[in-house]
# Entry
Amino acid sequence: MALFPTFVWKFAFTPEVFGPLNEQIKAKLRGLLPEDGVVPPSIVWQTEQNLHTHDELKTFTRHAEAGTRGVLGFMKVAYEFFASTVCWSNVAIKGGWHKAHSHPNNFLSGVYYVQVPQGANTITFKDPVYSVKSWSLDSATWMSPTRAR
# Structure
């Protein structure tokens, strides 16, 4: 799907893939929480930004890299190598949100939803040139690995 001058890709995993993958990610996140295991009382708690380097998340990293190779192939981008520069996780409290932001130093960016509650909000892509235009995509049906169309 072309939005503005930007493309958005959707990858859907089967339950056999996303089930164990989500459990691995949740286990890692539980280990990163404060000692009491409670998400700090802010709107969104964010991990360190080097999750792609953690051994426990190698399976996730391999899937992300495979998706990246697919996108680069589709775009016919010639490359000798590519590298993930940062990877982090956000955990939002009920009613929490993530403010609008961009990743200006990256050619590609990705989002993976491990767990999305019923009635959760949407992910919104804003036109980088004209901030008036935007597209909201239902995160529960658009980018969730559990509810691919």
Remarks:
- The chain has one domain: 2-138.
- The helical segments are 15-32, 58-74.
- The beta strands are 2-3, 6-7, 44-46, 90-92, 122-126, 134-138.
